[in-house]
Every structure is written in structure tokens, then in C-alpha cells.
């Protein structure tokens, strides 16, 4: 495999929720472009998957790929975001963080009439509060210039039954993105953008849909680019673009990466 141009050579990237799925693909892509990537997984039960992702990162041949490491920290807890950042900075020996990718998130579909407080907290504590506290903890350690990329979802703009809580958290992420772009632009020389994936081939998405052609048909019918769902690598390319120097004049934006899926 030909090595990619090392356009992120020497940059330090922290990617939350990156033991598998979209987060892992993002970590691998950033490493392939030369970044030193700090990955994150929430529970000891995911350590094996986190180690597998690290092996894939090291195999990219990126200029700092062999320096990648993983930190266990549950960002749904009050202490998790601060622990993640403090441990990352400790292992980085005080080096600044150039790139933060807020990817960690959860979905628990449930019709409104059946939503419980536990299901609300399950999603809001990680998707919303976790993103806010992780970003807040990173601020004293941000390099200048720097990049923050938040993971939203097509659900922030497209309604599906049973997704009001999850979609609401992603609308929150998009609002964070616009507000933080204004707040952090001058003081931190930081751009803040978001990527909103559509239906993407991950274990989590397939578990929700049953991974059958019949269950996907309504989404595929609204996707003009191809009769398929997206792949994690395609989302990672978009995230990596926002991290590049060439994207320095783009901030406060939400990029839909969904094959052109039409809004309902």
C-alpha cells in the first residue's frame, strides 16, 4: 500500500470513541497522514478491539503511527472526559493537542411513549455532556492553530420514528459546533466543524436496522449516489479534510456525508 502524503506530519490528534466503527476509521486515516493519534475506548471489555485498531494504525506507515496509544475512559461519566485529557497530556509529556475529534456517542431508539429517564441519560450524558466536557478539558492544551471536528448525524435534520432523543443530541452537537467556532476562533486559532454521516456500515448501525436489504430499502431509495450505505472510511476522509491546513478557512460548518440522501 502506497504511503499517503504526510500532510498531518507531527500533529497530535485525540479521537474519542475510537476502538471501532467510525472513530476507529478516523484514527486510522489521521495516522496514515502522519498524525500521532491518541485513541479512546470506554470499557475494559473493548480493550481487544482498541488494540486491534492500534495495530491497523501502526500498519498505515504514517510518520508517527508507531507512537499511537489507547486510553480507557468512559466519557459518559462526569470524571471520564477530564481523565482522558489528563492522561493523554501526561503520556504526551506536555505536548499540545492539535486535533480533537469528538466521536463518542450512543443511540437507543425508543418511541416517545416508551422513553425512560435511563434511556434519556444513556444518550445525553455521552453524546451531549461528554462532548462538552471533553472539549472543555482540552482547551488549556490546544495548540495554535488547532482543529475540532464533532460527529453529528443525518438524524439531526431527518426525522425517524423512535429517534427523538438521539437526534436531539445530534442537533445539540451542531449547535455546539457553530457556537464554539465563534468562541474559539480568535483566542485559540481553532476551527470547529462537524461531519454528519448518513447510514453507515458499522456494527452499531447494523444492530439497529437488522442489516437486511429490506430494512435498508427506504434509505437506499432516497440515496441518489448509489444503492448502498456509506463505509466508515468515507466518513473518515471528510473528518480528515477538516483537519488539514488547506481547510483553515472553513469553520462553523456541518458537512453531510450521506451519498446525497434526500431529506424527508
Keywords:
single chain, alpha/beta, Rossmann fold, 42% helix, oxidoreductase activity, acting on CH-OH group of donors, NAD(P)-bd_dom_sf, oxidoreductase, SDR_fam, NADP
The major beta sheet can be summarized as: 7 strands, parallel
Number of helices: 8
The proportion of strand residues reads 15-25%
Secondary-structure-based class equals: alpha/beta
The number of distinct β-strands equals 7
On the 0 to 100 scale, the average pLDDT is 92
What's the end-to-end separation, in Å? 40 Å
Strand order of the largest sheet: 3-2-1-4-5-6-7
CATH topology: Rossmann fold
Outline type: globular
Oligomer: single chain
Q: What would you note in describing this structure?
A:
With 264 residues, the chain is of the alpha/beta class. It has one domain (12-257): Rossmann fold (3-Layer(aba) Sandwich). 42% of the residues lie in helices and 16% in strands. Strand 2 (36-41), helix 2 and strand 3 (69-72) form a beta-alpha-beta unit. The model has no long low-confidence stretch (mean pLDDT 92).
Amino acid at each position: 500500500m502506497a504511503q499517503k502524503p504526510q500532510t498531518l506530519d507531527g500533529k497530535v490528534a485525540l479521537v474519542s470513541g475510537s476502538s471501532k466503527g467510525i472513530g476507529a476509521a478516523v484514527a486510522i486515516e489521521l495516522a496514515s497522514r502522519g498524525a500521532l493519534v491518541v485513541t479512546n475506548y470506554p470499557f475494559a471489555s473493548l480493550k481487544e478491539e482498541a488494540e486491534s485498531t492500534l495495530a491497523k494504525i501502526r500498519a498505515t506507515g504514517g510518520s508517527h503511527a508507531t507512537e499511537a496509544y489507547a486510553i480507557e475512559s468512559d466519557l459518559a461519566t462526569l470524571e471520564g472526559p477530564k481523565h482522558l485529557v489528563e492522561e493523554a497530556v501526561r503520556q504526551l509529556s506536555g505536548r499540545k493537542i492539535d486535533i480533537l475529534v469528538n466521536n463518542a456517542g450512543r443511540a437507543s431508539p425508543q418511541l416517545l411513549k416508551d422513553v425512560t429517564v435511563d434511556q434519556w441519560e444513556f444518550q445525553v450524558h455521552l453524546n451531549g455532556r461528554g462532548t462538552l466536557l471533553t472539549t472543555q478539558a482540552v482547551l488549556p492544551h490546544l495548540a495554535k492553530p488547532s482543529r475540532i471536528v464533532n460527529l453529528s448525524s443525518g438524524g439531526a435534520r431527518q426525522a425517524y420514528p423512535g429517534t427523538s432523543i438521539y437526534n436531539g443530541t445530534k442537533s445539540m452537537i451542531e449547535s455546539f459546533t457553530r457556537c464554539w467556532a465563534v468562541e474559539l476562533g480568535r483566542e485559540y486559532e481553532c476551527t470547529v466543524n462537524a461531519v454528519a454521516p448518513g447510514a453507515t456500515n458499522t456494527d452499531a448501525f447494523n444492530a439497529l436496522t437488522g442489516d437486511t436489504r429490506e430494512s435498508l430499502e427506504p434509505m437506499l431509495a432516497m440515496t441518489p449516489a448509489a444503492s448502498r450505505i456509506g463505509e466508515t472510511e468515507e466518513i473518515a476522509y471528510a473528518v480528515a479534510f477538516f483537519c488539514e491546513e488547506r481547510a483553515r478557512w472553513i469553520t462553523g460548518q456541518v458537512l453531510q456525508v450521506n451519498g446525497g440522501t434526500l431529506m424527508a
